[in-house]
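Let us work through a complete example step by step.
Step 1: write down the sequence.
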Amino acid sequence: MNFEDINYLAVIVAAIAAFMLGALWYTALFGKIWQKELGFSDEDLQDSNMTKIFGTSFIMMLIMAFGMGMLLQGHSGHESELTMLVGLKHGLMIGVLFVGTSQAINYLYQRKSFKLWIIDATYQILFLGIMGAILGVWH
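Step 2: predict the structure and record it as tokens.
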């Protein structure tokens, strides 16, 4: 594995894009539904260490984007060159076939709702697709 072939700026931009989608996803789009499904009050959210949560989340997104960059670099120089569409497809496949299913297993055992799984899994599938597209177009 050659780490020199990874576009680190693209990794950072992909992580920022995933983080920004999360900000929109868990506030304006599905924030109240997500909060209700978890049984969180507004006070619960205000009493949490958001710097720690946001900071750690962003680091995890950087690691995911870096990992996807490592996986996608195998396309360079092959018949199916790395493109935005190839990156998007790989990101979505990783999201659906690995992340979404793994999350579903955990949610079943934790007795979390199907609605919560749909909100969380769809977010992760979409942000992995976006990460893949960014890394694919900007390799």
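Step 3: interpret the result. The first helix runs from residue 8 to 29.
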